[in-house]
Amino acid sequence: MMYKQLQRWTRISLIVVYLVIAAGATVRMTGSGMGCPDWPKCFGYLIPPTDAAQLEWKPNTKYNEGNVIIDNERLLVASASFTTTDQFNSDKWEPYTKHDYAVFDAKHTWIEFINRLLGALSGLAILILFGFSIKWIRKKPIIFIFSFELSRC
How far is CA 12 from CA 8, 29, 127, in A? Predict the structure, then answer.
């Protein structure tokens, strides 16, 4: 029974790793690498925006620390959590200094975001595979060694 679970998680891990490779190639080929300018969030949000209008400053809106807006082709990040008034207050915003890329393209953003999600899923799958391989350390140490090496990547 344990061997079947090990086989299942080996297959799952390999499939997800191949998906990460394909997603990485897609990111590279489409130039989507800066589709999400920050990490681990994307434009300061857990779920990335789907439209440029979501990144525009809006009056009477709650912004959390780290949320990003695009203003005059530059990225600004909220320095603290606050609710906006009717007028834009530049004191509440700091320039985003990690890079100067301030173009929003929903396609690039979501390609990069899916690549990140697949990367996280592959890490989780490999960790589970490593957990199952520990039980095989005495019977077949090569299984543990390969799993350990895969988890180091």
Answer: 6, 26, 12
